[in-house]
Write a sequence for this structure.
């Protein structure tokens, strides 16, 4: 049985809104952030309306309820990602999760001359923390190029780069190209070389079932807001042995065992890295999002998205002047379709598409090294998710054809 | 009757935009004005120092006092909508005194029906470009 997309759409109030020009919203910017179902909005509202309190700090009823909800969410989310609650550190998102690895693990375990392997496909969130580390500590960064003929990582170059590496940081799925990297092979090859592996799953988690324990990956970074959850929360999943090698990142309340005027001692496990008042409402919202998403078979979800993306990209290729970057026809492509028009500049095109009600991303997508490799300063990008329909894709192609005819 | 806070020479342009049937027609008109830039800044003169920041497309502005002592703005952008707005701004400010330019308001874009297109959060840089021209005018007084 296929997905009942109409029923799914009815759970997302925002999808019914009209834009100021009267056009119906067609939301194709899902790789930037997904929309939220009513159950997520309700779960967060309920927390504020009924049991808003600080967690892990008091023994009154509300504090107990807030603490239970926060930790129940951790159990729900970690279980969804195939691991135990002890391995999940709440962060503000994938960016903070990657920075946490840079500060807590890399600064404790790497030294001058050690090698970190990145790829040209990385989001800035998985480049800049390592460049800063390189500046501060003298670690060497090696970038694995992409093959611009087929947009895949050059795995022969990876094989060379990973030799003697201490850490490998690779994006699961490119936010620009929608390409899903061979992360299983990357994890295996990295471990064979003695390197730890961090996979940036910000784009991967909304599109396939991530199983952390089975992956044998050392670190996985995830953002909630791209998978029906709220903004402001994500997590770092960490293997037990890697967590034992991590030092404190942000210090202050919550993460301490005791503080005296002479010094402090710290909590162990994930508590050491969750400083200050936790993101309680956001964790509860993410837990609700994960429960909501759990009712669907992610392979079925992905197949629905991929069918729309593949059809749309093929139609777009027939529009004069349009170039597609990536390979949306590939079955494991995420549903992100990056494109440019030969004469209508990307910013102009985005505004002209917005006039038709289509929310489309424009810019370098926080992936400037990839833009350099592609030889373009920016692209337009449409990206689909569970609630998008083929009818929306058809109306998009029609509007794009109209815009190109009128403005090129 | 609404009070017009822009130079009289802009009136026909403002009216032309205000009479457009819809936003697509306004954008089409901006594309046409992009081709009518009275004082373009050639791409070879685009530099870090004259780049307008806060704009997702590339936009550059340079201002000077011409031989008659009047304000002269040169501009260039890779996006046609920004380029069109630059053309209209140049048509407005070129020939004014720097003092007049420094006191000018960008309200004419509201009257043209472009307000929602030009919000700062859209990062298309019009207001940054306009403020930069005014800043130049203050410095050239």
């Amino acid at each position: 049985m296929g997905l009942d997309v109409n029923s799914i759409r009815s759970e997302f109030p925002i999808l019914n809104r009209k834009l100021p020009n009267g056009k119906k919203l067609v939301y194709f910017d899902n790789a930037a952030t997904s929309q939220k179902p009513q159950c997520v909005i309700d779960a967060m509202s309920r927390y504020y309306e009924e049991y808003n309190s600080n967690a892990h700090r008091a023994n009154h009823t509300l504090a107990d309820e807030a603490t239970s909800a926060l930790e129940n969410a951790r159990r729900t989310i970690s279980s969804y990602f195939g691991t135990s609650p002890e391995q999940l550190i709440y962060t503000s998102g994938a960016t903070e999760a990657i920075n946490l690895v840079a500060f807590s693990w890399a600064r404790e375990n790497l030294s001058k001359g050690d090698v970190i392997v990145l790829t040209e496909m990385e989001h800035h969130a998985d480049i800049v923390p390592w460049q800063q580390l390189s500046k501060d500590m003298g670690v060497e960064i090696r970038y694995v190029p992409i093959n611009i003929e087929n947009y895949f990582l050059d795995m022969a170059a990876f094989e060379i780069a990973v030799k003697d590496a201490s850490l490998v940081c690779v994006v699961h799925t490119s936010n620009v190209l929608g390409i899903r990297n061979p992360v299983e092979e990357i994890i295996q090859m990295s471990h064979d070389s003695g390197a730890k592996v961090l996979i940036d799953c910000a784009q991967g988690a909304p599109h396939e079932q991530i199983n952390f324990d089975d992956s044998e990956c050392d670190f996985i970074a995830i953002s909630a807001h791209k998978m029906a959850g709220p903004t402001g929360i994500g997590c770092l999943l960490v293997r037990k042995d890697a967590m034992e090698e991590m030092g404190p990142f942000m210090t202050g309340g919550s993460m301490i065992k005791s503080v005296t005027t002479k010094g402090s001692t710290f909590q162990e496990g994930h508590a050491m890295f969750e400083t200050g008042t936790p993101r309680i409402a956001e964790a509860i919202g993410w837990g609700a999002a994960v429960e909501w998403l759990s009712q669907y078979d992610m392979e079925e979800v992905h197949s629905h998205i991929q069918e729309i993306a593949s059809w749309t990209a093929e139609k777009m290729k027939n529009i004069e002047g349009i170039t597609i970057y990536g390979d949306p026809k590939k079955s494991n492509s995420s549903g992100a379709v990056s494109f440019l028009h030969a004469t209508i500049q990307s910013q102009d095109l985005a505004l002209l598409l917005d006039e038709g009600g289509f929310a489309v991303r424009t810019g370098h997508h926080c992936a400037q090294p990839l833009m350099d490799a592609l030889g373009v300063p920016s692209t337009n990008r449409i990206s689909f998710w569970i609630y998008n329909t083929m009818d929306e894709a058809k109306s998009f192609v029609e509007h794009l054809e109209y815009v190109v005819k009128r403005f090129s | 009757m609404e009070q017009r806070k822009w130079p009289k020479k802009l009136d026909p342009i403002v009216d032309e935009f205000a009479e457009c049937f819809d936003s697509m027609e306004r954008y089409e008109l901006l594309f046409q004005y992009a081709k009518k830039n009275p004082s373009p800044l050639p791409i070879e003169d685009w530099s870090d120092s004259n780049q307008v920041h806060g704009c997702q497309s590339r936009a550059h502005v340079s201002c000077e006092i011409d031989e008659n002592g009047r304000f002269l703005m040169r501009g260039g952008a890779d996006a046609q909508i920004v380029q069109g707005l630059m053309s209209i701004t140049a048509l407005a400010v070129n020939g004014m005194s720097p003092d007049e330019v420094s006191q000018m308001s960008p309200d004419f874009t509201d009257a043209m029906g472009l307000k929602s297109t030009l919000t700062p959060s859209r990062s298309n840089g019009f207001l940054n470009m306009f403020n930069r021209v005014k800043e130049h005018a203050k410095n050239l007084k």
About this structure: Chain B touches chain A through 18 residues (CB under 8 Å). The longest strand of chain B covers residues 59-65.
